[in-house]
Amino acid sequence: MIMKQLFISEWQRLWNRKSTWISFMLIPLAIIIAIKHYIKIDALITPNSPKYVSCLNFPSVILGNESILFFDVIIILLIIMAVTSEYRKGEMRMVMLRSFSFSEIFKVKYLVTLSTVFLLLITNFILSSFLGYLALPKQEVKFPYYSNKFTINESMIYNIKYYVIAFLVLAAVVSVIMCISMMCKTTIGTLSASLAFILVSTILSEIISFLMDNTSQIYNILYFSFITRIQYIGVETLLAQTPQQVGIIFTSIAFHIIVFYLIAHSLFSDQDCYC
Amino acid sequence: MSSEKIAVKNVSKKIGKKTILENISFNVHEGDICGFIGPNGAGKTTMIRVITNLISPTEGEVTIDGANVVKERKTALLKLGAIVEEPIFFPYMSGRKNLQNLAMLNPAMSKSEQKEKVEEVLKIVDLQDRGSDKVKTYSLGMKQRLGIAQSLLNNPEVIILDEPANGLDPMGMRDLRELIFKLQKEEKITFFISSHLLDELQQLCNRFVVINKGKLIWQGSKDELESMGKSGRLEDAFIKLVSGC
């Protein structure tokens, strides 16, 4: 009950900010831009091409190709607003002076960020399904790592599974960025370090795939230890006709969620960091 | 219920190798308006952060109405209202919305009680008419009053104010003084106020705690402190205490 009140209070504050609403409003805009882009591409290729986008694969294609980076950036902004900015400006003191433990405050901030990401992701799914249905061809298409074309029902199930796994990966990103925000403490520091994390993860995983034998198990472990790789390739690998590297990918996601959450929680609960 | 509303026992605080507070002990009794004074950098804000459990003491303990702020944080803070450093609000929300948001954090109140409480405290600090305006449009004096309003949301028995008169004009200071007297008299609230505006504290407080370089150098009644200075002004006594002459 007490945690619920803290959650509602935190949720209200986050959604009272214009930036949160702007992020929300950007979703339909990004979807419309993507639809225009895919209509142009579809005009140049046949429905048999793996690059062909119809309303059936549009929700997962847009999330995998465009929206996931948008969500990473949104997570950074949400955490800067809910944690770093409130800490820097002293606003967080107003809550810390109430009869809640620091641990409860941290858990609620984590949950509110995660819930907001969930809401944005659901919105992205519903709008991309709806607008895609209105604007894109309704042809059956092949999904990545599948030999056959999908029916409407099959594609719906695939897209839902894609969003569920993407949400788990985004939960891992929330844990990492929370941890970065607790270490950096300044808005600029958190923003730079978080963007650097995404960039370096992407570059390092590319270097690994360039340097190593990509059939070895060590390669797979290293490759999917980067959360950005799971975002771009891992989800499709998991949902393939013959799923690959399931254990490695889920272990990596769980590792990121749990370990970075615990580090961030411990840093937040250390009262001497507010000296 | 304890007559010692705030009890500080042998509190030390070290940050890294630096000792900020050293073995400080004092009590604030029920109904007191206790002034907490010391030169800049004496450790006043650190002490207030320890009392409000924003940071933990390295040694010693602090109790509020008998509840240890570290071991029984929730119980101790239930009876406490505070402004630490300066009254900071969420500027993108109105004064009323800020208070409603914070009132929600009071587990003992129902939703309707929270609403009533917000209107009640807005009335006490005379901000009902500006309650719907965004906080970013408030003057410093209004923010201080809103700060006191938020500290009243949980029906506290103790209020801690850190430099509440900072930046206030004479009218603002008079209003604040009258508000504190009113709350002490009508709501029986005990105050612990840090400030460097000694004339202001002289008009407000009945007891004083003086620290310098992280150590307690004096505590006692206003009359005792005034009698230490030649002119009866607090400033003379304070300078005498701090300089050791």
- Give me the secondary-structure category of chain B: alpha/beta
Relative strand content of chain B: 25-35%
Q: What is the fold-level CATH name, i.e. the topology of the largest domain in chain B?
A: Rossmann fold
H/E element order of chain B:
EEEHEEHEHHHEHEHEEHH
Helix content of chain A: over 70%
Summarize the amount of helix of chain B as a percent range. Answer: 25-40%
* Mean pLDDT over the full residue set of chain B: 90
Largest sheet, strands/sense/barrel of chain A? none
Q: What fraction of the residues of chain A are assigned to beta strands by DSSP? A: under 5%
Write down the oligomeric state.
heterodimer
Q: How are strands sequenced across the largest beta sheet of chain B? A: 6-7-8-3-9-10
The gross shape of chain A turns out to be globular
Average pLDDT score of chain A: 92
What is the total domain count of chain A? 1
In the CATH hierarchy, the architecture of the largest domain in chain B is 3-Layer(aba) Sandwich
What's the helix count of chain A? 10
Q: Based on DSSP secondary structure assignment, what is the total number of beta strands of chain A?
A: 0
CATH homologous superfamily title of the largest domain in chain B: P-loop containing nucleotide triphosphate hydrolases
The total count of strands of chain B amounts to 10
The first-to-last residue Cα distance of chain A is 31 Å
